[in-house]
Amino acid sequence: MPDYSIQVDVPLVQVPVMVTTKDGQFVSNLKQENFRVYEDGTQQKITNFNISEAPITAVLLVEFASGDYYFMNDILRGSYSFANTLRKDDWLAVISYDIRPYILADFTQDKAEVYGALGQLRIPGFSDTNLFDALYDTLDRVDRIEGHKFIILMTTGVDTFSKLTLDQIMKKIKATKDVTIFPVSVGYAIRTWFEAQGRAVPHGFGIPVSQMDYLQADNEMNTFARLTGGRAYFPRFQAEFPEIFEQIGGDIRHQYTIAYHPTNPKLDASYRKLKVEVVAPDGGPLKIKDQKGKELKYQVIAREGYTAKHSVD
What we know:
Blueprint: E1 13-21, E2 35-39, E3 42-44, E4 46-53, E5 57-63, H1 72-83, E6 91-97, E7 101-108, H2 111-118, H3 131-142, E8 149-155, H4 166-175, E9 179-185, H5 188-196, H6 211-228, H7 241-253, E10 254-260, E11 271-278, E12 288-289, E13 295-296, E14 298-302, E15 305-307
Parallel strand pairs: 5-6, 5-8, 8-9
Antiparallel strand pairs: 1-10, 1-14, 2-3, 2-11, 4-10, 6-7, 11-15, 12-13
Helix pairs in contact: 1-2, 1-7, 3-4
């Protein structure tokens, strides 16, 4: 009998998890036994567990269109605020978009190059803000890069003329592995002022955008974050941007990573729903207290699911 071997492709699912107090402080003292992970309602056995403070690989995706006149300060100040949080081992790409995406800086560890890329955002071109198309293109780009990636999305959330539909971009997000999206809304203060005056919020030249459009955009940003295990932010004032990006930096540098081999090993391209819980070592409710012994409320942030296909880790 000739020698032969059998190769079995057993999927490994990795789930980055953030556990924070309500005020955004990372809860750092949890162990593997504090976590429960469920796939389609069935508890899974955690096989790998770690916590680390690691360099990040991220894309700063910036809406920059001629219709953003009232939002420009938020867009630029917010973008520079995120750039200021970078460390020497981080990798960042800068992409802007209007009718299409533009790569201003490919992945670099040079903060000066990042600042130079943002310095190109001076004269907007088209007034359209094709968010869905730009996000799809960005997801395609980062999907080729190993490891976990982050997209910091500076946007009004309004999509004016994309070829893609909301359903298509949602399907793309669900099918993309190892990406967490942190949308940051711009123009909230301006929107609030116009709404208080009973006036429509301007966006674009000749492009009608209603309050309902902005509410839908906010809902979509929350959904993008929730699906990928991120958080959406809606700063009211420009002064909030540095604090928000410090918080995002803390989120993406301090994460638990849990991994398991699913009890359903079929790689049938189905979408599997995930749920992560934290519990006390005895399986009861976990209680987190501050230094004074006061019980703190906390939240568990993890992606909602994944598409079961080859290389799902």
